[in-house]
């Protein structure tokens, strides 16, 4: 079998999922473009802002597509390529896409609030506060980790730092020219893409070299501004323009794979056990964002839902972006399946998964005349750009969560004071984790915590759909699977960390297990109740 065959099969399954299964999702969720969205109802020009589909898709896709769908499939390939391939395509179609689209729709029906509001309305304030505290803590950990990761990237690759600063300037100019001077989107997009290329060239001509701690501080300052400024001025246009980097990476790698037709060398299945743990549930935790990610539900019910102009955008933006991320996961898998088992393990040990991805993609791009070095640099630039995008989005969504946590039930309370104070709280806690190095002690739990968020999001969506007597089986079934994955993973992590003397991780794993069981117990009456519809 060739990698070309795998990619074409994945594209077929993902396409069928969007054009056929997507129709059922539209009907089951009851999307209606005549229903006024929160973006219009609460329009404030800051967080609530009706947005066109191309810009909203770029913003959402850039926000959710971090390093997860790149690192996860490459690490999970240690079990063989078959299980990863099936989970990426079927998981994206039947679980991840439903999860992402459902999070947006649920937020639209609850005044643009998070899934915590659903838990409050149907399970009570304790369930809401538990979920919001867990979600906020997870996001603060993401902000701390990604701040360090991006800072290290800038130190290691100064041209990337200069290019990234150029992207920020472009974003502000794009927002001003599009929303204030009313320039046509197509012409600004062309200019913006030209600006991206110019920023990349500027980066190589004038690499910016600063210390890691300086970059960390500057990045924390940037995410503070990204959280408090109007979304149309910085965050949204930056995401939209940055998305073209990943579009180019996806298209180039996809065409390169098709033209080369390289054979698959990695075994389809290497065994149920390996040093990472048992195939179930570890493969489904490690593969992460390419199939389903709890972080997506926070973005979907956070920044995205507050910009939806028509409910039908939930299909294109929520479901469509998840399927495209599944394709990114397949291409990441393709970057290593062309290696033998020995080559695969040697590359991971010597360079790491991101370097393995960059090297593989560079090999695919050779058909376009790009050298291995230039192709690798372009792939690394795209990955770092999206790590930065996840960093700023996580900060803004954390601010939303805290505003919701401390606001009167069911009310939108967002003032200049609250925006500044809550953002400072998020940035301050993340900075403490980053500079103390404490985030490294907790980070090994991130994969399981992220999948736990996905399971809890699906749990909340099921409870909501049952309560309003809508079809719910299409959400309940992936929820049950993800609950089985996360509960089993937590038990394994508790045993593993206790045996190795990592008592902090064991205690945190036990806490997450207790959290899951607590919310499942509170939701049992509605979660296991049939809505009376299929």
Regions with little confidence, pLDDT below 50 for 5+ residues: none
Q: Give me the secondary-structure category.
A: mainly alpha
Strand content: under 5%
The CATH superfamily bears the name Amino acid/polyamine transporter I
Question: Which outline best applies?
Answer: globular
Helicity level: over 70%
What's the CATH architecture name? Up-down Bundle
Largest sheet: 2 strands, antiparallel
CATH class: Mainly Alpha
Radius of gyration: 22 Å
Sheet with the most strands: spatial strand order: 1-2
Distance between the termini: 38 Å
Looking at CATH, which topology would you report? Amino acid/polyamine transporter I
The number of domains: 1
Question: Could you tell me the number of beta strands?
Answer: 2
Write the layout of secondary structure elements.
Blueprint: H1 3-29, H2 38-41, H3 53-64, H4 68-76, H5 81-108, H6 115-123, H7 125-156, H8 158-179, H9 185-205, H10 212-228, H11 235-260, E1 273-274, E2 277-278, H12 279-286, H13 294-304, H14 313-337, H15 341-351, H16 353-365, H17 372-406, H18 416-436, H19 438-442, H20 446-467, H21 473-499, H22 503-527
Overall description:
The mean pLDDT is 91. The protein has a two-stranded antiparallel ribbon with strand order 1-2. The chain is mainly α. It has helices at residues 3-29, 38-41, 53-64, 68-76, 81-108, 115-123, 125-156, 158-179, 185-205, 212-228, 235-260, 279-286, 294-304, 313-337, 341-351, 353-365, 372-406, 416-436, 438-442, 446-467, 473-499, 503-527, and strands at 273-274, 277-278. The chain has a single domain (3-527), classed as Amino acid/polyamine transporter I, CATH 1.20.1740.10.
């Amino acid at each position: 079998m060739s990698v070309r065959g795998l990619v074409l099969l994945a594209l077929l399954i993902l396409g069928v999922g969007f054009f056929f299964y997507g129709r059922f999702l539209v009907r089951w969720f009851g999307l209606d473009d005549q229903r006024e969205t929160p973006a219009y109802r609460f329009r404030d020009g800051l967080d609530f802002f009706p947005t066109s589909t191309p810009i909203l898709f770029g913003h959402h896709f850039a926000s959710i597509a971090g390093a997860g769908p790149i690192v996860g499939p490459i690490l999970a390939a240690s079990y063989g390529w078959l299980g990863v391939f099936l989970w990426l395509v079927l998981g994206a179609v039947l679980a991840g896409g439903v999860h992402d689209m459902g999070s947006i729709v649920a937020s639209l029906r609850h005044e643009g609030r998070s899934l915590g509001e659903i838990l409050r309305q149907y399970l009570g304030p304790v369930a809401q506060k538990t979920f919001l505290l867990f979600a906020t803590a997870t996001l603060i950990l993401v902000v701390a980790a990604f701040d360090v990761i991006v800072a290290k990237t800038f130190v290691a690759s100064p041209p990337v730092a200069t290019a990234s600063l150029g992207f920020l300037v472009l974003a502000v100019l794009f927002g001003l020219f599009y929303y204030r001077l009313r320039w046509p989107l197509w012409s600004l997009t062309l200019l913006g893409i030209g600006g991206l290329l110019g920023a990349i060239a500027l980066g190589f001509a004038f690499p910016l070299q600063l210390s890691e701690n300086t970059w960390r501080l500057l990045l924390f300052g940037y995410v503070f501004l990204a959280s408090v400024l109007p979304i149309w001025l910085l965050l949204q246009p930056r995401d939209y323009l940055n998305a073209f980097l990943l579009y180019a990476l996806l298209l180039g790698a996809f065409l390169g794979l098709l033209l080369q037709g390289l054979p698959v060398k990695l075994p389809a299945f290497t065994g149920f056990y390996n040093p990472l743990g048992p195939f179930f549930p570890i493969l489904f935790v490690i593969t992460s964002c390419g199939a389903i990610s709890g972080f997506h539900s926070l973005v979907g019910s956070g920044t995205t839902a507050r910009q939806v102009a028509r409910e039908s955008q939930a299909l294109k933006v929520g479901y469509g972006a998840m399927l495209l991320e599944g394709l990114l996961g397949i291409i990441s898998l393709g970057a290593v399946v062309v290696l033998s088992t020995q080559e695969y393990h040697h590359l991971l040990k010597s360079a790491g998964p991101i370097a393995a991805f960059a090297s593989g993609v560079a090999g695919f791009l050779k058909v376009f005349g790009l050298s291995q070095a230039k192709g690798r640099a372009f792939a690394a630039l795209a990955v770092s750009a999206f790590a930065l995008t996840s960093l700023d989005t996580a900060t803004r969504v954390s601010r939303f969560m805290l505003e919701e946590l401390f606001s009167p039930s069911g009310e939108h309370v967002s003032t200049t004071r609250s925006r500044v104070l809550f953002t400072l709280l998020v940035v301050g806690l993340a900075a403490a984790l980053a500079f103390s190095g404490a985030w490294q002690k907790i980070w090994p739990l991130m994969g399981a915590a992220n999948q736990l968020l996905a399971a809890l999001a699906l749990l909340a969506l099921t409870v909501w759909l049952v309560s309003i007597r809508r079809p719910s089986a299409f959400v309940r079934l992936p929820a049950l699977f993800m609950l089985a994955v996360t509960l089993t993973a937590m038990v394994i992590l508790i045993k593993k960390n206790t045996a190795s003397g990592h008592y902090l991780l064991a205690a945190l794993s036990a806490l997450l297990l207790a959290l899951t069981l607590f919310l499942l117990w509170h939701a049992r009456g509605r979660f296991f109740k049939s809505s009376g519809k299929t």
